[in-house]
């Protein structure tokens, strides 16, 4: 399973998606900060599964229909930061789907995730991550779970990794930093948490017009 995650920076990088899919041939595409009213039904052979509707800028997921069948989809709201309460940028911070691999008959849960911005505390983002993984597991108890996206967690990842492991999940970073807009904030913002999957690698792809670099996750059922 090959999954690309990309924060489009307020939809600015949307025009890159067709070339990105053509170049890297993912099975699933997870997006953050996309204009959900301006998304095509398909991108390079991938079909739109769902997009959030609570805000213009939100989350979306595409997949290859001849590889996966969608069994259920869920959008999830998480505990809000002060930034969320004042500016209301996003209510739904998780878009998850229970999928069936057509060839193997195995189920898997995949989600696009966007954590609270850097103005929030890391403790809030840890709370959001724990809650998101718990809600996703309810889509299919004992199924493998892969949650990719913008975690907004550039420092103290050891604490996050420990928290994730205590709940039975693994935290996996990509092979290079993913956020480049401000030198002082550069680091790994986009990565994956998972259970029941072997993640062989996460590749940071070349910079586009977004301040985030897309990542390509390669995983298989453990």
Automatic annotation (TrEMBL):
GO molecular function, one term: endonuclease activity
Endonuclease/exonuclease/phosphatase domain boundaries: 5-155
Classification via InterPro entries: Endo/exonu/phosph_ase_sf (IPR036691), Endo/exonuclease/phosphatase (IPR005135)
UniProt keyword annotations, A-Z: Endonuclease, Hydrolase, Nuclease
The keyword Membrane appears for this protein: no
Name of the protein described by the UniProt record: Endonuclease/exonuclease/phosphatase family protein
Taxonomic lineage: Bacteria, Bacillati, Actinomycetota, Actinomycetes, Micrococcales
